Amino acid sequence: MLTEPVFWLAPAGVLAGVVFAVLFYRDMLRQDAGSAQMQRIGGHVQRGAMAYLAQQYRIMLLVFLILAALFATLAFGLDVQSRYLPVLFLAGGLFSALAGYVGMQTATRASVRTAAAARYSLAASLRVAFRSGAVMGLAVVSLGLGNVVAWFLFATTFMPAARGEGAGLVLVTTTGLSFGMGASLQALFARVGGGIYTKAADVGADLVGKLERGIPEDDPRNPAVIADNVGDNVGDVAGMGADLFESYCGSLLAAAALGAAAWSQDPAMQLKAIIAPLAIAGLGILLSVCGVFLVTTKEGAGQKQLLSSLSRGINASAALIVLASAGVLHLLGVANAWGLWGAVVAGLVTGMVVGRATEYATSPGYAPTRKVAAQAEGGAATTLIAGLGTGMQSTAIPVLAVAVGTLLAFLCASGFDLNQLNQGLYGVAIAAVGMLSTLGITLASDAYGPIADNAGGNAEMCELGPEVRERTDALDSLGNTTAATGKGFAIGSAALTALALIASYIEVVRLELLRRGETLLTLDGGRSVPLAEASLQDFMAHYNVTLLNPVVLAAMFIGAMAAFVFSGMTIQAVGRAAAAMVEEVRRQFREDPGILRGDSEPDYARCVEISTLGAQREMIAPALLAVMVPVLTGLLLGVAGVIGLLAGGLAAGFVLAVFLSNAGGAWDNAKKYVEEGHHGGKNSRAHQAAVIGDTVGDPLKDTAGPSLNILVKLMSIVAIVMAGVTVGFSLL
Amino acid sequence: MLTEPVFWLAPAGVLAGVVFAVLFYRDMLRQDAGSAQMQRIGGHVQRGAMAYLAQQYRIMLLVFLILAALFATLAFGLDVQSRYLPVLFLAGGLFSALAGYVGMQTATRASVRTAAAARYSLAASLRVAFRSGAVMGLAVVSLGLGNVVAWFLFATTFMPAARGEGAGLVLVTTTGLSFGMGASLQALFARVGGGIYTKAADVGADLVGKLERGIPEDDPRNPAVIADNVGDNVGDVAGMGADLFESYCGSLLAAAALGAAAWSQDPAMQLKAIIAPLAIAGLGILLSVCGVFLVTTKEGAGQKQLLSSLSRGINASAALIVLASAGVLHLLGVANAWGLWGAVVAGLVTGMVVGRATEYATSPGYAPTRKVAAQAEGGAATTLIAGLGTGMQSTAIPVLAVAVGTLLAFLCASGFDLNQLNQGLYGVAIAAVGMLSTLGITLASDAYGPIADNAGGNAEMCELGPEVRERTDALDSLGNTTAATGKGFAIGSAALTALALIASYIEVVRLELLRRGETLLTLDGGRSVPLAEASLQDFMAHYNVTLLNPVVLAAMFIGAMAAFVFSGMTIQAVGRAAAAMVEEVRRQFREDPGILRGDSEPDYARCVEISTLGAQREMIAPALLAVMVPVLTGLLLGVAGVIGLLAGGLAAGFVLAVFLSNAGGAWDNAKKYVEEGHHGGKNSRAHQAAVIGDTVGDPLKDTAGPSLNILVKLMSIVAIVMAGVTVGFSLL
């Protein structure tokens, strides 16, 4: 590995990522932190956020230790799993948590400094917010790539079974997927818990504050206002970071595993196939750092100029990665370099199309959201009907884009031969890597959103002048637009990565069979092939993984159902947690009339506590579902059932996630559109209807939708990790 | 065929069905039709319903003639289709329309007579309503079974190619599926059009009448009240009838086709396998007639006694079919008679479990709906969040039931051998036949609902005494409970039938290849098998229909997406049509203040016209989607793509349909629960929130949900009919 010059792009990228993350962080800390009051409010938010993280990490630690003990038993006691698995699993959770922690530490400190800078200058304010977002972006990618590289170097040096090439490298790369399971599980907790936290606070603050008492957003008299601001960090920073850490590592690990499997008979090519995704990722980090420096703006810039300066950074990184990856792949001398380059491009283009489609479906600048806003004149019922209808229809383009992107990536990488499953699916994984290669900067533009949002909240609570609020509003609304692109990448990469993980599952099953001493795979009609050389088609034939096998079809139904039940559980959880918050806010207003007059400070901490406890209690059941469904399906229905489950869950979950995110986004922006003065403007009957739509959409777009992305990957990766149990003990 | 004594059960059933339908109809006409005012109101509804049907059938005729001309061109010009196809397609549409017409004629005449009988006696009123529902139930099953039997008799007598057994009978049975396409397309129009009509009228009447003007349900001052009553007939009678006519014929035709294919090498057994579903269906009609006579009640019966008398009829029919079908299958001497009997039982039990689960999820007697009602205290937003969450979670049991039912039916019929795909899938189709065998009486208890509902409407508008309204309310609320069971059968049978249709698709592809002169099917590794003897597994291998083929996966995404987009289109259509209705009702109230005072009669006809035109305009696009998606997928992605599309569409569409139906049902009954006096009762803040929930749920449960059942079958059947084109011209 070390002898391939191109490989060094990966550690170089990791190093650059870490260095610039530290530099940006220290640069941010040096900025003016504003007045004493601003710091006091900022301190509230920061302490709330840290209290939540501490609480969440305590529970996570418990869950992880229990599971690690279980895995250790399976590995050392029953001998059905790799003995590195428990450690890798813990490491995956740990580093994902670390990335989230870094992001939160940065974001909560940055928002007050963004507000402080906004008192004087828009350009300085953008710089603080965006570079702080980049700390998180760079932390995620360098921790992710760094860990993957470290594992490969460690395993190829110290693991006796892995020292040889061929099957050894397949073993190393597939074992690495258990790191992905740790990252996935932590991501699910972060997304679900964060999503419940933020929406319980948001819904609670809005329902009592805005609708019942008629006080504005971010008013310091609202007891839930701090919890709401903490929620933005908990959901959009820590949740999003863990989510994409998981996608990023998953795509790298799946690509490496599929590459190792595709060329298991050709050691030289095998190593190159493993290095290719790592090198592209490293290159992507380097180019993301360059992109960050392109994001600057002049004083007094309008919305258009702000957007173009952000886009400049993102687009430049993407364009450069297209050019540079062609060179890297050729320099590396990987087989079918142009084909793989085609897969990288297919991935990037798919991500952009999904991002644009998301923007079209949810931006107040386009017809769908405006139609939802227009329906607000008919009241809440017609607003909701329109949003649900729009959301469902908006799935068309993202799904088609991913379907076409998958096919193109497969065809390019397989030399346009549908029977070359190994090479083709490696191409699909590489497309996911390509899509996420510039994650350093796309995630920066995502994490920047809540920083700007919180800065606005701080400005409002400290009653800074209207020109300050105007600047933070400009930054905030820009964040909403770039968030659409970020979502596109998150959704698209989840679908591609999940596909690649399903394919990796078969490789793990093969290794498990080999480990159990089997040498032949029996096929239809009494034929059999040597297990080590069996193609993926042979496995499909052996396990009868066709669409007429009733086991596969029944499992597909169950997979699709799991996606719906999981969403229902998270949505209900928000409802319950929000109801508790509503009660508390009503109680505070009732028991201390001084709060509404502005005479006494509300008990912010109590609301923070309610959100924290609600999130903590409610995230257990959905996580259990995600872990238990693939395990039980494996035990009852075997390998064919597991693959059916994953395919059904992916197809339904992916489309459902797009629907939920876009319906929620459309309601959110329809409300903003009405607030801008259309259809009667603020406090009109239409506005009330639009607020109800927004409130209903909140758990859909910020809890259930993003969590589904993780669910489909977590189910795949649980199936992979438990493959030994399925092969050893399944009923069918 | 005629020499098998058991076969004669089928014509006997058809005859009995027709005779008793006519008797029940004439019996109903002889009843007292009430006062002059009641007849005038009844006449409004009847004319409105017939005007709608006339309009719908005109458009349908146009669409059917265009498609038949296209099919004729494909059959006679390009020679890629059977020449009987255009005629069978037209016949399917025609007889489905006829069943709907009979149902509407009966229902609209019966409701006024039910109201008239309710002036004196509950027992007489139940008798009129239920036996009128039975007219529709018996018309659907005898027209359905009669047509299928007639086609088989005709084809085996007159079709030269089909006179021989073996491949000949496969050809006859698969060609018969084009009758199913006609029935499916007509069902889609009836369901989508009817669903849009009824919900536009309902939402329009409620939003302006109830919410804005505060006048009660079914108030004669509401201009949309007649359209609303017409809508109940159009949606729940004609739509439901066409829907189940389609399911019934589809399950019979699919079972016959799979039976013919499974024993194509054994002519004697082949004929028995075709006769088995027909005989079970005939037996089911005979037992349904018996069941109808068991539904009687004593004067002054409470809700419990009413329900138990209805249940007595339905349960007795089901129990008898379980016993009798065992005898029939053994008498017939079909292979593995006990196994097939197991499949029949699996089907019936699955239907019942799905029905009970639907009742649990949506009845105000159980926790889920009560929790939604409790959330109404928090306002519209929390009501909606709770309903969406509940609906999603409620998919668990129905989907598990269908998955288990499918597996059990397959295993029983295949002798517990997962590799006997032919026999096993035949068993799945037989399970669907078993589930629908007592459709004569289950549909009666469905069609009875809108009759009782309309009777209540008539009583309200004619200001009959409170004791009359009490009786019709008792009947109506009973109808809501039995409708849940009916829905369970509709949803469960759709899933099983769709599975059987996907399997039939392969048989059609085989015939098409044979017709094109091919003799061998190439498999992996250069092997090949004689086409006529190739197993379903061989076809799966030849076309690479595995879950790792990117074409299959991409098509699965597209299928899942099609289900969501289709639902979005129908939901949006209701929104648009309802908006037009709201405008019109507001206009009438504004321009003629005498209406609200009760001095002048509103312009009912104008509202009827708006719903009719809205339904007509809006049903084209969803129908086009349902027809074009499988055709285009076939042309672009070939056979593997089509199967992936159908599987993805079925998995996602089935779960989505359950979610939409149950969420809507829960909101509907939560509203009723609040109206009974809970959480503040009528006109409380909670009631307002619950009404909004009910309004949002209307298009979900009465338009999108039921239409999805048809969509998944229609896509399969379009794929079957267009198999010649796919095999001949596809890109991949």
From TrEMBL, chains A, B:
<keyword id="KW-1003">Cell membrane</keyword>
<keyword id="KW-0378">Hydrolase</keyword>
<dbReference type="GO" id="GO:0000287">
    <property type="term" value="F:magnesium ion binding"/>
</dbReference>
<feature type="transmembrane region" description="Helical">
    <location>
        <begin position="619"/>
        <end position="637"/>
    </location>
</feature>
<feature type="transmembrane region" description="Helical">
    <location>
        <begin position="275"/>
        <end position="294"/>
    </location>
</feature>
<keyword id="KW-0915">Sodium</keyword>
<dbReference type="GO" id="GO:0004427">
    <property type="term" value="F:inorganic diphosphate phosphatase activity"/>
</dbReference>
<feature type="transmembrane region" description="Helical">
    <location>
        <begin position="488"/>
        <end position="506"/>
    </location>
</feature>
<keyword id="KW-0406">Ion transport</keyword>
<comment type="similarity">
    <text>Belongs to the H(+)-translocating pyrophosphatase (TC 3.A.10) family. K(+)-stimulated subfamily.</text>
</comment>
<feature type="transmembrane region" description="Helical">
    <location>
        <begin position="6"/>
        <end position="25"/>
    </location>
</feature>
<feature type="transmembrane region" description="Helical">
    <location>
        <begin position="643"/>
        <end position="663"/>
    </location>
</feature>
<dbReference type="GO" id="GO:0006814">
    <property type="term" value="P:sodium ion transport"/>
</dbReference>
<dbReference type="Pfam" id="PF03030">
    <property type="entry name" value="H_PPase"/>
</dbReference>
<keyword id="KW-0630">Potassium</keyword>
<feature type="transmembrane region" description="Helical">
    <location>
        <begin position="424"/>
        <end position="444"/>
    </location>
</feature>
<dbReference type="GO" id="GO:0009678">
    <property type="term" value="F:diphosphate hydrolysis-driven proton transmembrane transporter activity"/>
</dbReference>
<feature type="transmembrane region" description="Helical">
    <location>
        <begin position="710"/>
        <end position="731"/>
    </location>
</feature>
<keyword id="KW-0460">Magnesium</keyword>
<keyword id="KW-1278">Translocase</keyword>
<keyword id="KW-0739">Sodium transport</keyword>
<feature type="transmembrane region" description="Helical">
    <location>
        <begin position="547"/>
        <end position="566"/>
    </location>
</feature>
<dbReference type="InterPro" id="IPR004131">
    <property type="entry name" value="PPase-energised_H-pump"/>
</dbReference>
<dbReference type="GO" id="GO:0030955">
    <property type="term" value="F:potassium ion binding"/>
</dbReference>
<feature type="transmembrane region" description="Helical">
    <location>
        <begin position="59"/>
        <end position="78"/>
    </location>
</feature>
<feature type="transmembrane region" description="Helical">
    <location>
        <begin position="245"/>
        <end position="263"/>
    </location>
</feature>
<dbReference type="GO" id="GO:0005886">
    <property type="term" value="C:plasma membrane"/>
</dbReference>
<dbReference type="GO" id="GO:0012505">
    <property type="term" value="C:endomembrane system"/>
</dbReference>
<keyword id="KW-0812">Transmembrane</keyword>
<protein>
    <recommendedName>
        <fullName>Putative K(+)-stimulated pyrophosphate-energized sodium pump</fullName>
        <ecNumber>7.2.3.1</ecNumber>
    </recommendedName>
</protein>
<feature type="site" description="Determinant of potassium dependence">
    <location>
        <position position="483"/>
    </location>
</feature>
<keyword id="KW-1133">Transmembrane helix</keyword>
<keyword id="KW-0813">Transport</keyword>
<feature type="transmembrane region" description="Helical">
    <location>
        <begin position="397"/>
        <end position="418"/>
    </location>
</feature>
<feature type="transmembrane region" description="Helical">
    <location>
        <begin position="314"/>
        <end position="332"/>
    </location>
</feature>
<comment type="subunit">
    <text>Homodimer.</text>
</comment>
<feature type="transmembrane region" description="Helical">
    <location>
        <begin position="128"/>
        <end position="154"/>
    </location>
</feature>
<comment type="function">
    <text>Sodium pump that utilizes the energy of pyrophosphate hydrolysis as the driving force for Na(+) movement across the membrane.</text>
</comment>
<feature type="transmembrane region" description="Helical">
    <location>
        <begin position="166"/>
        <end position="189"/>
    </location>
</feature>
<feature type="transmembrane region" description="Helical">
    <location>
        <begin position="84"/>
        <end position="104"/>
    </location>
</feature>
<keyword id="KW-0472">Membrane</keyword>
